[in-house]
From TrEMBL, chain A:
It holds the Pfam family PadR. It comes from the Bacteria. This is PadR family transcriptional regulator. PANTHER family: NEGATIVE TRANSCRIPTION REGULATOR PADR (PTHR43252:SF6), TRANSCRIPTIONAL REGULATOR YQJI (PTHR43252). Residues 7-79 form the Transcription regulator PadR N-terminal domain.
UniProtKB/TrEMBL annotation, chain B:
GO terms for cellular component: plasma membrane. CDD domains: ABC_MJ0796_LolCDE_FtsE. It comes from Streptomyces sp. NBC_00119. It holds the Pfam family ABC_tran. Keywords: ATP-binding, Nucleotide-binding, Transport. SUPFAM superfamilies: P-loop containing nucleoside triphosphate hydrolases. This is ABC transporter ATP-binding protein. Residues 15-242 form the ABC transporter domain. PROSITE patterns: ABC_TRANSPORTER_2. GO terms for molecular function: ATP binding; ATP hydrolysis activity; transmembrane transporter activity.
Length: 179, 242
């Protein structure tokens, strides 16, 4: 996910400071990898450097002084360009599970590739149960449901691939050991 | 008589299958399958097509008798019970949902859902009140007068859940209950089933090949070639001390 564009999107509603942006980011994307404060501030500084955001001023509210940021006209048009751009489908994702299966075949009897797939499957299922519990919890909002659904669909895709691979392990083993 | 089976010692499974073997002609559907089902848990049984999932469900619910092996339900052994007692259990203690609701097409939904109660001798007025409460719970009371053919697939499945639960069973057996639905319809059916089972402490055996459906369960067993595949031990989501 492009943190700079999401922060620009959050700034589209009006000037905001780093702490508030982080809080709103976490609310909007509850299942995403949590955003560190340091990353928010670094990203804001880069947006300013690139002319996509500007410092609006500071506010203190009796507490420590906070820098307010706002989006510029260039920031607004960059945001529209990014949001309208097709995200490239990524067919050649790094597949660590596949790498482990192949390595297990290569090391012969030391690691059982079928067991690798079974245990990975159990771990995936455990995570899917957690996500299902999150999305069916009491009073849950649609943002959370859709974020969990996204993660569930991807874990499900991994599982389907693992099932197909498990069913074809003997052919794969013959191919890998012959090479 | 039906209370007999309800006496399950603390920590013991409600339903226990051991060494189940079942063949159809030369096809061995089950080859020594074993599992435990505890009171109030949702157990997913997954596996590829032809792995024996449906045959296992039929043996566990007393619909078919295994060629060998045993199924214990409380103090009773299903594989040895007379047909009369088996059908009484299926009417009163077990509820069943299939991929296609299998509601009676000629009857309005309210009569379909009330049917198990009517068969058990509950007066018609009371049966309808109880059936209405279940239709309400599954969000299809507005369709009570419709025939199954006049409803969407998701509505039919939710009505089928109402019919499976109307007798307050201890166990619901669900065979691919979302298999004929789109993903949103399936999600609504699974959410309704999981919430209700947890609220009413009803155990569920959920047959599915779909991991996203299996994820509604507390745990999962996987069938492979008619036997339960060993899985690594993982923390359980439910305690088994009730």
């Amino acid at each position: 996910m492009s943190t700079r564009h999401v922060l620009l999107g959050l700034l589209a509603g009006g000037p905001s400071h780093g702490y508030d942006l982080k809080r709103r980011y976490d609310d909007r994307f509850p299942q995403a990898r949590p955003l560190a404060y340091a990353q928010v501030y670094t990203t804001l500084q880069r947006l300013v450097r690139d002319g996509l955001a500007d410092v609006e001023g500071t506010e203190s509210d009796g507490g420590p002084e906070r820098t307010l940021y706002r989006s510029t006209a260039e920031g607004a048009s960059e945001l529209i360009r990014w949001a309208g751009e097709i995200t490239p489908p990524a067919p050649f994702v790094t597949n660590e599970i596949f790498a482990k299966v192949v390595v297990s075949i290569l090391v012969d009897d030391a690691v059982d590739p079928a067991a690798v797939l079974r245990e990975q499957r159990a771990a995936h299922m455990a995570r899917m149960r957690e996500l299902t519990a999150v999305k069916t919890g009491p009073g849950v909002d649609l943002t959370t449901v859709l974020s969990a659904d996204y993660a569930l669909a991807h874990l499900d895709a991994d599982l389907r691939w693992m099932n197909t691979t498990a069913a074809r392990l003997s052919t794969l083993t013959a191919e890998v050991t012959a090479a | 008589m039906s209370t007999q089976a309800r006496e399950v010692p603390a920590g013991a499974p409600l339903l226990a299958a051991r060494g189940l073997v079942k063949s159809y002609g030369r096809t061995e559907a089950l080859r020594g399958a074993a599992l435990d089902l505890y009171a109030g848990e949702i157990l997913a049984v997954s596996g590829a097509s032809g792995s024996g999932k449906s045959t296992l469900l039929h043996c566990l619910s007393g619909i078919v008798r295994p060629d060998a092996g045993s199924v214990s339900y409380g103090r009773e052994q299903l594989d040895r019970l007379p047909e009369e007692r088996l059908s009484e259990l299926r009417r009163t203690e077990f509820g069943v949902v299939f991929q296609f609701g299998q509601l009676i097409p000629e009857l309005p939904v309210i009569d379909n859902v009330a049917l198990p109660l009517l068969l058990a001798g509950v007066p018609r007025a009371e049966a309808h009140v109880r059936a209405d409460a279940w239709l309400e719970r599954f969000g299809v009371r507005g369709q009570r007068e419709l025939r199954p053919g006049e409803m969407s697939g998701g509505q039919v499945q939710r009505a089928a859940l109402a019919r499976a639960l109307v007798t307050d069973p201890r166990i619901v057996f669900a065979d691919e209950p979302t298999g004929a639905l789109d993903s949103l319809g399936g999600e609504q059916v699974m959410t309704a089933l999981a919430h209700t089972a947890r609220e009413t402490h009803t155990a569920v055996v959920l047959i599915t090949h779909d991991a996203q459906v299996a994820a509604y369960a507390d745990r999962e067993v996987r069938l492979h070639d008619g036997a339960v595949q060993e899985s690594p031990m993982l923390p359980q989501a439910v305690s088994h001390d009730h």
